[in-house]
Amino acid sequence: MTVDRGPLVIEDLALQFGGVAALRNVSVTHEPDEVLGVIGPNGAGKTSLINCITGIYRPTSGRIERNGQRLDGLRPEAIVATGIARTFQHNQLCGQLTVRENVLLGCHRRLGYGMVKAALRIGPAWRAESRLRAEVGPILELLGLADIADDRADSLPYGLQKRTEMARALALRPQVLLLDEPAAGTSDEDRESLVAIIRRIRDHGSCSVLLIEHDVRMVMEVSDRVAVLDWGECLMVDRPAVVAADERVVAAYLGVDEDALELPDLETS
Ligand SMILES: Nc1ncnc2c1ncn2[C@@H]1O[C@H](COP(=O)(O)OP(=O)(O)OP(=O)(O)O)[C@@H](O)[C@H]1O
Which residues line ligand 1 (CB under 6 A)? Predict the structure, then answer.
């Protein structure tokens, strides 16, 4: 069976909170197999964008579409079922469960068992258990979590908890993975591993990655293209080196974080 993997198309998206325009006519196409970074100063609309894509917010106008299906207006669970998974800024792990069990919860959610049946391992969740455990193995390997698979999630350093959350999202077998500030609160070392892991997910996880992140250096390093939001508007979408050199982007960041656009070596050709 061939899986339809079209682009995620965001067209003229607007989101209004009373007098505040969180998003103004944002248009961007997220291609399959790419890492698309989304950057912007505080309040630029990054989280609003991810919340519109995942059905948490309903856009005021515009459309979000994938594989010919309109996504705006669908409920979050229905959007997950179309192949879009996400992680959250603040971990949503079950701390008393192991890393493996947390990832298994992602599998159970995909198959519609729900938390209680999954935790108690009753009904179909029990019958499918060994098959699902086999499915979880490669995900743990991909994210470098195999050695700590049986550790309790709440015993892990924050960076590994974030990685576990990414593994749980991948257990939903998404075609698009949305990462909401995966580097927040993590160490420099974690951030370096994160770059490698995001590339691995793109190359071997069969899904595209949309990455929202404050760490601009990291976004520039790992993204194939970068979208820049400022005051709810999309200033540009282009390759990292082009974005970093654009004066509108520099202006958007001026006075916010002067080092934010001091970037590692980027291919300019
Ligand atoms: N639920 C809400 N109610 C009212 N205003 C909101 C709500 N969510 C976001 N906003 C406003 O919309 C604008 C965009 O916020 P958003 O959180 O999307 O930006 P952001 O780029 O993710 O910021 P940060 O980097 O600080 O997380 C801000 O002015 C914010 O105050």
Answer: 17, 20, 22, 40, 42-48
ipTM summary value = 0.96
Q: Give the range of the structural domain holding residue 217, as residue numbers without chain letter.
A: 1-83+182-260
Residue 268 within any structural domain of the chain: no
pLDDT for the residue numbered 116: 57
Instruction: Pick the residue whose CA is nearest to atom 6 on ligand 1.
Output: 17
Alpha-carbon separation of residue 25 from 13, 28, 36, 64, 92 (angstroms):
5, 10, 19, 12, 31
Structural domains counted in the chain = 2
Instruction: Report the C-alpha dihedral over residues 73, 74, 76, 79, rounded to 10 degrees.
Output: -130
Residue at 88 is within a domain:
no
**92 Cβ contact list (under 8 Å, min separation 6):** 165
